[in-house]
Each structure stands twice: as structure tokens, then as C-alpha cells.
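Chains adopt folds. We examine one example:
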Amino acid sequence: MSLAIMVQGTASDVGKSMLVAGLCRIFAQDGHRTAPFKSQNMALNSGITPDGKEMGRAQIFQAEAAGIAPDVRMNPVLLKPTSDCKAQVVLMGKVATNMDAVTYHNYKPQLKSQIREVYQSLAAEHDVMVLEGAGSPAEINLRDRDIVNMGMAELAECPVVLVADIDRGGVFAAIYGTIALLLEHEKWRVKGVIINKFRGDVALLYSGIEQIEALTGVPVLGVMPWLNVDLEDEDSVVLERGKYDAVTEKDLDIAVLQLPYMSNFTDFNALAAQPDVRLRYVARPDELLNSDLVIVPGSKNTLGDLRWLRENGLEQALLSHHHNNGAVLGICGGYQMLGQHIYDAVESGLGEMAGIGLLDVVTRFASEKTTTRVAGQVQADLPGVFAASAGSALQGYEIHMGETQRGENTAPFATFTECNTQPYHNLDGAISDDGRVLGTYLHGVFDSGEFTRSLLDSLRLRKGLNAWQGDVFDYQQHKETQFNILADAMREHIDIEKIYQIMREHQEQAV
């Protein structure tokens, strides 16, 4: 029987995903085969496993922290919102259906047995399981059909550590209120509390910690300081809170259109980490001024987001940017929007719509979703801004419902030679005749250091700057460094030995 611990939070965005990743790295460093698990994830950030299954990005980067390949069993249920009240339901890596919130709530009990089996299957192959909850376990209106917080802890028969975010204020009320709203058998599972995102002198908290421990009977296992670790965020709420607003001026300014249903904004983490790039998420036309590159990202509601671009003036601003010799890059849904026309009888319910018209391509949506991990290289003899990238190695993944057809004289961007670890041949993307507009279905394209550096140096030369003189930035090594920084900080500020003790004592009781 594997050891297990579950990290739940007093609210969303308290740092659960990051702390789970840190625990995965710590347990792996200690020599334990470790795996993350989140039964249900609601996010527009998703990725693809080596066998072509779709799962949440948070569990993918947690698997990376544990030093193992992502496995769809780590996230059996993925909900991808398509509107304010509907979501695409992905079960075990494949699209099952679309449901509104009430229908899905009533459907959840049918998933319990499958989730239990999946969890037990994964746990049987690992020494330690690190589970993550969603939102708060004190959502009393959802308790009777919960499959992701205390309901999941009961299925896994594991103890819980509660995480509270002090940066947003009211941390002690959040801890006390959350525990007070739990049922007695749920309170019994809560074996510790972690206070997260603290700034200042921790001595100021000691009296409050003593009181909250006395009030709840639950020990505080540590106080984590605010860490500027550069790892993936699960939710776009971090963008709404201005994660990139404080970045100082850099040689290159790159703007990403912040679409209402933007998906996979993790595509741009590697870009933001480049030493000469200032990355901005923009939602107003005037914010495109002086950008060296404008990126149209992926979308879970392509036509809805295209209509939004038109209504708020961003489409015209993008066209003006291109008219003034600016460079544009579209990924997945963004690639589709840059084309001539989109026909959609699947995703948005809006039918069809003219595209922005910067690429000679047409997209038709299909009911079958493409979910693949691919590798290949950029085409030779690309024009314009992207010429320096010709022949660069690429790898990443595709997640899309549409199929896009290039015009007869439109050149593709890349050739994929591997798909889900098997030999493959497919041409991807499109590039405009003027060499300033590129579209691709490849998520994670900027993780490929050679391609990214050649593109950035091309943008630098257009500004009259010299090419970057340092080494090509290795994003994978950068992530490894960040995981280790996180793990070191957690070992310093959290009683990790106490967490081991909690897991072992609970295992003995279960036996």
C-alpha cells in the first residue's frame, strides 16, 4: 500500500498545484517513486501524454517534478469551459460530451467507481501519491456529490493538508471557517495546515498560529514565503492579477491577446523566461503599440473569441500592426482566426465566420479531436521574419477540433516526422507571402530553444539590435532548476518529516 497525502485549499489559487509539485520533487529526491493525482481538473490549460491522451497541464508539470512521464490516470476527468455555463468533458484523455453545470453535477456520482479504480491502479505502481483538491472542501452545496476534495480523500483513504493563502488577507478566518464547515469525519482527515505566500517577518504570525492551532486542534506545519519561482500556473486568474505587469523593460516586447476563452497560455512560459523578452497579455487595442510580435493564442471558443476581438477593436489594431510591418503569430485557435474563413458546427454554435484574413487558409471543425505529441522541424526556405528559423528542431503537442487547409500557393511552417512516438509525416501550419504572419497547431512551440532564439534574434535585427550573445536558453533545464528551488524552500519552511509521519501513521491505521 503506497503512502499518500492530499493537498486541499481554503480557496482557489492558494498555491495547491505548486506545493504538490514541490512535494513530488521532494519525495522523488528522497528516492520514492512518486506520482501526482487530481481526480477532476477544470482548466483550459491541457497537454498530451506520450500515448496521445489529453490531461491537465498542472498534473503534467507535477509529473515532471516527480521525474516521470505524464499518465492520463493522474487526471481522469478534465473539464474545459466553452461558455459561462457549459464545458467539454474529457474522460481518461478523450472527449466524452459537453455538459452544463447542473447536468454534470448530477452525473458525478457515476464517475466515482471509475475514479477509484484509476487511482488504485496508479497507486499500485508508486511508493507515494500526492493528491490535489480543487477550490475549497468547504463548498457545502457540492458536498453530497464531491469527487475532488473530501470525497476523493475518502476514496483514496488518505490524510489531508490544508493550504491557506495569507497574501489575500484573512488567513486565520479562512483556516478556521474551512475546518468549521467540514463534517466530523472530514475534520478527522485534516492533519496539518500550511500558510502560503507570506511576506515579512514570520515572528509576527506566532501568536496567531498558536491561537488557530488551539481553536482547530490542527497543527501548522509551516509558513511558506512568497517565492518567485518560474513554474506553470494552472489557472488564468494569475493573469487577471497582473503576473507579468511588473516586468521591467527588455529589448523585445511581445504581446499576447488575452482572449476570454484563451487556452494553453502555458505555451508562453518559455518565451517569458527568455532574458531579452518582455511578455505582456493585452486586452485593449492601444496596448498593441510598439510590439515587436503579436501572438493570437489558442481558444476553447474560437468563433466567440474572434467576435470578441472584433467588438473591442483588437482585430483592427492587429491589422494595423501588420500594415505597419509588424509580425504576427497564431497558435491553434489563433492560427484558425488568422485565416480567411472558419466553419464551426461543433464548438461554439455560431456556425461560420470570416477570419482576420492574414493567412490564406480555411478551417472546418470536425467532431473528432486531434490529440497528439509530435516532433519534427521547421521547413526550409521560409521568408521574412521566420527565415532564420528554417530547419530548427521542434517538438510539442496538438489539441484541436478543426482541420485547416492551406491555399495552393501557401507554404507550410513545419514538417512533423514523429507522432505519439511513432514515425509520421505531416505538414503543419502556414506562413504568409510577406513572411510576417505565421500560424501553427503546435502547442509548446517556444519550448524548442533553437527555434525560439532564431526567431527572437530575427526580431532583434529588425529593431537594429545585435543578435543575443549568450547561450541558447534551455527551458527544460530552467524548469529543473525551478523545481529544485521550490523543493529546497519547502524543506526549509515546512516540516517535511511531519508530513512523512502523517502519511505513515495513516497508512498503519488503514491497514
Remarks:
- The two ends are 9 Å apart (CA to CA).
- The domain at 252-464 is CATH 3.40.50.880 (Rossmann fold).
